[in-house]
Amino acid sequence: MYKACFVNIIGKPNAGKSSLLNDLMGEKLCIISPKAQTTRHRIKAFYTTDEVQIIFSDTPGLLDPK
Fold first, then answer.
1. What are 7-37's pLDDT values in tens digits?
2. CA–CA distance, 30 with 58 (Å, rounded to integer)
3. Do residues 16 and 64 make contact, with C-beta atoms less than 8 angstroms apart?
């Protein structure tokens, strides 16, 4: 039986979301910078084996509108 799932990486700006995705995938897919809001658009990465597919989504940091 083949299984698939979606994983969204959500958090505050500069919380390490892009670094986490890069580490999980084992390669540099996302830009990393000390500047807040470097990730402006969602970045997707796919992890696939014979039994499972996981779609990761790196999102921009959540901001508190004022």
1. 999 998 888 999 999 999 999 988 888 887 7
2. 8
3. no
